Amino acid sequence: MARGGWSMPLDGFIQEVEGQLSKQGAEMVLYALQQLIIHSPVDEGAYRGSHFLTIDDVDNEKVPHYGPDESMREAERILAANPSPFKLVTIQTNIPYGERIEDGWSGQAPYGVYSIAYNNTRERYGR
């Protein structure tokens, strides 16, 4: 068995790994949100700005009316305020016609929006 030691205490190593996981998780979440925004059909823009995220919770009441840039900034703020890599992030919309859009109701999004964002995110990050 080799003698020696760790170059850093294990708690420091754990913090470094958690920081990397948190950064990668935030990158994936923001990419998925960006995909939702990009693939959202636009009439008046309400649907495009209605996507939001929650941490370890689901909010069935909130219907934000952000623009795409504000949606991304709000998501970045929420992720920065919750840096733990071990959290459940939910991206959702509560706009009343959101399910119809996902079912192909819009000619601009015949294959839905969330399904496209999911597939693109999965393709980019694997599994």
Stretches where pLDDT is under 50 for at least 5 consecutive residues are none
Which whole number gives the mean pLDDT?
A: 90
**What is the topology, as strand order, of the major beta sheet?**
1-2
Shape: elongated
Short structural summary:
With 127 residues, this protein is mainly alpha-helical. It is built from four helices and two strands, in the order αβαβαα.
Report on the architecture of this protein:
The protein has 4 helices and 2 strands; from the N terminus they run αβαβαα. The chain has helices at 10-39, 68-81, 98-102, 114-125; strands spanning 52-55, 89-92. A two-stranded antiparallel ribbon has the order 1-2.
Keywords summarizing the entry:
127 residues, 4 helices, 48% helix
Topology:
Elements lengths: L9 H30 L12 E4 L12 H14 L7 E4 L5 H5 L11 H12 L2
Antiparallel strand pairs: 1-2
